[in-house]
Amino acid sequence: MPVWLQEYSWRQTGSAVYLSLPLRGLRVSPANIFCTDQYLKVSVPPFLFEAFLYAPIDDVNSTAKIGNGIIFFTLYKKEVAIWDSLTLANASKEELQYLRQDAVLKAHTKAKEETEAKKVKKQEHKKYALEATMKLEEAERLRIEDLKEKERQKVTKELELWQKQHQAAEKQNKVQKELHQEVHQEVQQFNEKKKEKNNKSRIPNEGTSKTRLKHTKGCHGSYSMFSENLNEEQLAAPRSAATIKINFTSRVFPTPLRESRVAEEEEWLHKQAEARRAVSADLSELEDLKEEEKNPDWLKDKGNKMFATGNYLAAVNAYNLAIRLNNKLPLLYLNRAACHLKLRNLHKAIEDSSKALELLTPPVPDNSSARVKAHVRRGTAFCQLELYTEGLQDYEAALKIDPKNEAIEKDAEKIRHLIQGTNQDS
């Protein structure tokens, strides 16, 4: 049975009621107070205070202050009036029960309305946030499109300028060629005249010589550069055709001659040169990319920077696009295997390391470092999958390539101990 609290004090004005309820030694929180427009309840088990108010109050603006073992209520009246008492007098149990149920029902209705209002407000906030995000994304899209359009215009202008320069150069070459042909024809004519002159008598008569001198003089007293009296030494001979030979310095490898693998090294260099030229330019994704983004080497450097900052997923994406552009470069698979190791994609790490080893053939000193990394990364993936025998094989293969590597030797020794321990347990 609850203990009813009968001790309280109250006073009023025309617009408010001030109620003081002592609860010494009890811990009270706002959850212990229930108030509607005509019902007030304070429940602190085992104590209970209940009041059916004389007239309706404004339960929204009314307040309750808890402190020093007292609850001080400030209840604002809906209508300005002086109450005869704080609670209803001479009310039957049925009326009080009805008022109590009505207060609970109103409280539930109010709570439901507040919940719905919060839900609507939350949806409005989400809608506003979505609209704001869409506006930002639209602005960013427009900015990117504007940058692309400016870049296209810039490239178009550069292309047009190049075409004009190319046309001007072709025109100039054509003019020079025509001029060279004219000079060549004049030289031939001069040589023919010279031959005719040599066929004639070497001592001409006076009339003939005077006539020739008058004929070769110009209107201003100058002589033609191709006149018959021109000395042979004054005219340069035509340039003769020739073949230019270019010799390249042979590539020198650090391998001693007695251990030379020149054929394998030349094959490796030939494969690398072919791999550099094998670029797939028919991908639909390339249409929206910049020129540098279509370069596998640029994408590889980008992936390396992402890997260095710990953004392994972005690095994998960069290597993926680079491999789609050129699937013949072993370093792309080798670097992507390192990313898969960090992301715990162990089977993919094994696949990429195996692909890199497949492309790193024939084995030469120039690719020994890459082959060591490929064996170590594949061996690490095998060991993390608890396939220690396969992992040890890769580590031993790496040691055959680089026998002085102490770090690989230590890891291989650890794997041997793990294999021994596993065999003893079994």
From TrEMBL:
<dbReference type="InterPro" id="IPR019734">
    <property type="entry name" value="TPR_rpt"/>
</dbReference>
<protein>
    <recommendedName>
        <fullName>Dynein axonemal assembly factor 4</fullName>
    </recommendedName>
</protein>
<dbReference type="InterPro" id="IPR052004">
    <property type="entry name" value="Dynein_assembly_factor_4"/>
</dbReference>
<dbReference type="GO" id="GO:0036158">
    <property type="term" value="P:outer dynein arm assembly"/>
</dbReference>
<dbReference type="InterPro" id="IPR011990">
    <property type="entry name" value="TPR-like_helical_dom_sf"/>
</dbReference>
<dbReference type="Pfam" id="PF04969">
    <property type="entry name" value="CS"/>
</dbReference>
<dbReference type="InterPro" id="IPR008978">
    <property type="entry name" value="HSP20-like_chaperone"/>
</dbReference>
<dbReference type="GO" id="GO:0005576">
    <property type="term" value="C:extracellular region"/>
</dbReference>
<keyword id="KW-0539">Nucleus</keyword>
<dbReference type="GO" id="GO:0005634">
    <property type="term" value="C:nucleus"/>
</dbReference>
<feature type="repeat" description="TPR">
    <location>
        <begin position="372"/>
        <end position="405"/>
    </location>
</feature>
<dbReference type="GO" id="GO:0120293">
    <property type="term" value="C:dynein axonemal particle"/>
</dbReference>
<feature type="domain" description="CS">
    <location>
        <begin position="3"/>
        <end position="87"/>
    </location>
</feature>
<dbReference type="InterPro" id="IPR007052">
    <property type="entry name" value="CS_dom"/>
</dbReference>
<keyword id="KW-0966">Cell projection</keyword>
<dbReference type="GO" id="GO:0007368">
    <property type="term" value="P:determination of left/right symmetry"/>
</dbReference>
<dbReference type="InterPro" id="IPR037894">
    <property type="entry name" value="CS_DYX1C1"/>
</dbReference>
<dbReference type="GO" id="GO:0043005">
    <property type="term" value="C:neuron projection"/>
</dbReference>
<keyword id="KW-0524">Neurogenesis</keyword>
<feature type="compositionally biased region" description="Basic and acidic residues">
    <location>
        <begin position="185"/>
        <end position="199"/>
    </location>
</feature>
<dbReference type="GO" id="GO:0036159">
    <property type="term" value="P:inner dynein arm assembly"/>
</dbReference>
<keyword id="KW-0802">TPR repeat</keyword>
<keyword id="KW-0963">Cytoplasm</keyword>
<dbReference type="GO" id="GO:0030331">
    <property type="term" value="F:nuclear estrogen receptor binding"/>
</dbReference>
<keyword id="KW-0677">Repeat</keyword>
<dbReference type="GO" id="GO:0003351">
    <property type="term" value="P:epithelial cilium movement involved in extracellular fluid movement"/>
</dbReference>
<feature type="region of interest" description="Disordered">
    <location>
        <begin position="185"/>
        <end position="219"/>
    </location>
</feature>
<dbReference type="GO" id="GO:0007399">
    <property type="term" value="P:nervous system development"/>
</dbReference>
<dbReference type="GO" id="GO:0007507">
    <property type="term" value="P:heart development"/>
</dbReference>
